[in-house]
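Repro:
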Amino acid sequence: MEEMSRLFNLDAQLVHDTILLAVAVFVLFMIMSKLLFEPVRGMLKGRQTKIADELSAAEDSKKDAAALKAEYEAKLKEVDKEAEQILSEARKKAQLNAARIEAQAKEEAAQLIQRAGVEAELSRKRAMDEAKQEMIAIASMMAARVVAANIDTTVQNVLFEETLKEMGDSTWQS
């Protein structure tokens, strides 16, 4: 019955070995903790810090990129406005140039019309002068014929008066 007195085969030797084994495992755990776990924990903590720093740097870079993007978009809008302003100014200059060219063309046309009027007046005066010269030549020929025919002065005066009436008074006045 001795065998029945032990519960699960627990005897003093087994309890002693179990306690000794537990102490050995605890000592081994402490030694391993100091030798292995602490450096691994330090390495993991350093890696965790490095990752947190990289995440923080990435977040800062993201914020900087967003700010640069906003600045770039603002500059693009500014450039668009400036381009529109330049185009507007160019259109205004083109309109002013067109108006100036049109005014010059009208002025030149007016000058041409004036010159044409002056030239027409000069041509009319020349034609009148030529007509006078021809009438004088005709009158001279008539006078020569009258003299050649030995007509008296009363006949000459009558012929001269008739010639003047045919030519008209307005021819001699201009």
